[in-house]
Amino acid sequence: MSYKCFEVTVENKIAHIVLNRPEKRNSMIPEFWDELPSIVRELDANAQARVIVISSTGPHFTSGIDTAVFSSNAEASDDPKIREKQNRVHGARLYDTVNYLQQSFTCLEECRVPVLAAIQGGVIGGGVDLITACDMRYMTADSFLTIFEINIGMTADVGTFPRITKLLPEGVVKELAYTGRRMSAAEAKSLGFVNEIFADQDSLLLEVMKIAELIASKAPLAIYGSKRIINYSRDHSTADGLDYIGIWNASMLQNAEIMEAMTAASEKRPADFVDIPAKRKKMGSGIVD
User: Fold this and answer.
1) Which of 48, 204, 235, 281 is the most buried (most CB within 10 A)?
2) Is residue 124 among the annotated active site residues?
3) What is the pLDDT confidence band of residue 270, given thresholds at 50, 70 and 90?
4) Given 201, 216, 231, which residue is the final one in a domain?
5) Helical ranges in 59-159 per DSSP H
């Protein structure tokens, strides 16, 4: 399937999603918000990959949200009474738009496989929302991020603050949010926001794909469980997290996968793990796999 904002390939159990509008600095136009969740959910639902890598093209990873996203589909009426009613629902329409945009990134967090962001150049505005929803982040030495919304009189609203406050110290987040300054890759790495920095985009993609290959070689059911438990524990108390992992393993732990991992290691061969099953879909009144 062809997309306006992305190129998608799947090879060796690794899905590679590439932002492919470099001439427009990969701005997030309306089609972006439809295409990204559609791609991720299809990959997840059909169990097409064991890991997803998101990378980009051109000088910047993304310049952020295109303002066309916030334009209303409804034309302003010439009738003052109708226009006044349109104004009354403006807030509700905007809330609905923001909620839709938020879900476009939440799908990265909710999908069952790890998502790795390979970042070059600038990550501006909405781009920060995107990478904070990923499991891991890798950057080139010259890359940077900026919570740019404050520079245009906005409060970032598509997911930056709920996630980045769990990834960076609160004082640092507030400084970025209040000033709109750039955070360099080196600073992001020093604070644990970025896993690793690479000299250029070629070495970035080469090394990130090696990490993706390593993840893809592990037991998919165990990776799925790890992602679920880590995210759950982040948002809940220690006691809740301990209880949840106990319940999870009581229902999901597979001795056969453990034995295969141990046997494969002793025989020095790739393990033959089962993939996460495709999600079940309703068709009419029946259910099919």
Assistant:
1) 204
2) no
3) very high
4) 216
5) 80-88, 90-110, 126-132
Q: Is 135 a catalytic residue?
A: no
Q: Is 80 exposed, middle or buried (0-12, 13-18, 19+ CB in 10 A)?
A: exposed
**Of 17, 39, 54, 65, which one is the catalytic site residue?**
65
State the greatest distance between any 2 C-alpha atoms of the chain, in Å, as a whole number. 78
Q: How much is the pTM?
A: 0.92
Is residue 74 scored above 60 in pLDDT? no
Identify whether residues 264 and 237 lie together within a single domain: yes
Question: Is 170 known to be catalytic?
Answer: no
157, 164, 211, 215: the active-site residue: 157
Residue 260 annotated in active site:
no
User: pLDDT of 216-242, one tens digit each?
Assistant: 999 999 999 999 999 999 999 999 999
Same domain, 121 and 209: yes
What's the pLDDT at 287? 47
Is residue 212 located within the same domain as residue 224?
no
* Tokens representing residue 229 in the block: 């438990």
| Domain extent at residue 256 | 220-282
